[in-house]
Amino acid sequence: MARVTLNRPHALNALSSALRRELTRTFNTLAARDDIDAVVLTGAGRAFCVGLDPKELGGETEASPSTEDGDVNVAKAMAALAQPITGAINGYTITGGFELALMCDIRVGSTAARFADTHARVGVVPGWGMTQRLPRIIGESRAKEMSLTGNYVDADMALAWGLVNRIVEPDALLDHCLGLAADIVETDPKTRNEIKRLIELSGETSLQEGLQREREANQVHWQTAFLRDRVAANRARIQQRARTQNKP
Question: Which of 151, 185, 219 delimits the end of a domain?
Answer without folding.
Answer: 185
